[in-house]
Amino acid sequence: METYSEGQSDRTVLAFRGPRGESATVIVMRRTSKVWLVFNGALKTTVAMSDPECEKLVVALRAASR
Hints:
The chain has a four-stranded antiparallel sheet with strand order 1-2-3-4. The chain is of the alpha+beta class. It has one helix at about 50-65; strands at about 10-15, 25-30, 35-40, 45-50. It has one helix and four strands. It is globular, with a radius of gyration of 13 Å. The chain starts with 7 loop residues before the first strand and ends with a helix.
């Protein structure tokens, strides 16, 4: 198992509110050539994406924010 510092080049923690007003976090980081999104610090809700998959997510987020 990797620790936090192994294979990681960038990490950002974003704070949000859930649909019912509860605190929510999204951690965005790069580990072992993938972009990881970690929701509320849980491995079961973590997504690891290749760069092309990450670009698709960015496009989808931009489209939804219009």
